[in-house]
Amino acid sequence: MLPASYQLPAAIVLLIGGIVSTFFGYRLFRIVLSIFGFIIGALAASSVFGASNTGPMIIAALVGGLIGAGILFLAYFVGVALVGAGLGALVANIAFSAGDRAPNVLAVMLLSIIGAVAAMYLQRYFIIVGTAFGGAWTLIVGAMALVGNRAAMNAAASGDVWVAYPLNPAPGQRWVPIVWAILGLIGVGVQLGITGGERGRVGRRRKKR
User: Fold this and answer.
1) What is the mean pLDDT of each run of 10 residues along the chain (209 residues)?
2) What is the pTM (predicted TM-score) of this model?
3) Direct distance between the N- and C-terminal alpha carbons of the chain, in angstroms, rounded to an integer
4) Listed residue (141, 156, 122) closest to 19, CA to CA
5) How far apart are CA 166 and CA 87, in angstroms?
């Protein structure tokens, strides 16, 4: 977990990144990939050090974040596949949770693979849905941290599992999945109707001769 003095900036980064992803994910997909690549890289690298090792931990977070951002920015198709895989895993977990059962590993893997393949053929729609819901969750965590929610503040800084895994919501925060679903749907609507139009294509369409 980051030291207390760095938790507020971490929350601001999550909030801004969530807004950009939710409402402009398709138009600014490479930027969104860079933001989430930075967050993932920073969390992974900083976890090597304890909170008492402030200097090395901050340096590791910055270096890891930059590496993660660079990898996802350059690996566009990897990012698209990850979005599809994530949505496939989400569908599998929702299906199993509806029956109060733990998700089957093989089913999750199968749907993740199907989602990754489908995302390569239906890039626009997978990117819009994936960035809208992923951004909505990040936005909620950042907003909760900014208004003083201790659980969210700690999660924003430490990368608790419920931050990255929407189907394990914050303990005692039953409203979070509902707000997440509403924000995600609003984000999908905004991107489909406004920000994700023809001008917001990730790849420019070739002109016919």
Assistant:
1) 62 86 89 84 75 74 86 79 84 74 79 86 86 88 74 53 44 75 92 73 49
2) 0.70
3) 56
4) 141
5) 11
